[in-house]
Amino acid sequence: MNYEKYEAYKTMKQNLSKSLKTDFFYQAIFIEYAIIEDRCASCLRYAGVKWKDSKGRELKLSDKIRKMKGNPAFEVPYVRKRITIDLLDRIIDWKRERDRLIHSLASIPYNHENVRLVAMQGNEIVKELDSKVRSVNNYHKKQATDDNCGKQTAGV
Question: In Å, how far are 7, 8, 9, 10, 134 from 4, measured between CA atoms?
């Protein structure tokens, strides 16, 4: 287990909770986006799907989602049941709203209710995605372990 990553996630989730409770919704949205990006990268990585470009830079969230929608590693029934097209579409819809808010940050008047709604939706997506990715990553770890055991015993 990567304890640095665990501690970073723990801190992010605490900060997300505090942001939502104290109406710092833009801060919550930034944290949610970071978590969603990381969870998607993790899911691709465990599935053995390329999540970085040729220069070693992480793909954009929309490209990660596209891969999760169309890559055969995500068509396995166990995986697709958890990482559904509906969930991926909700992430894309949420990202569009998030982008619109970010690009109109200085707009007047400030629409507190709309920003709150996007933050709350993002929080729900984070919770669901985190749970589903954990399950799918465990599935891929088990598959890799089973494959390695099969390879080791094949030559015996």
Answer: 5, 6, 9, 10, 17
Give the containing element (helix H, strand E) for 65.
helix 61-70
Q: Cis ω on the peptide bond leading into residue 109 (within 30° of 0)? A: yes
Total of domains in the chain: 1
Rounded CA-CA distance 63/50 in Å is 11
pTM of the model: 0.89
Residue 154 CB contacts under 8 Å (≥ 6 apart), including other chains: none
Per-residue pLDDT tens over the stretch 41-69: 999 999 999 999 999 999 999 999 999 99
Q: Is residue 2 part of a domain?
A: no
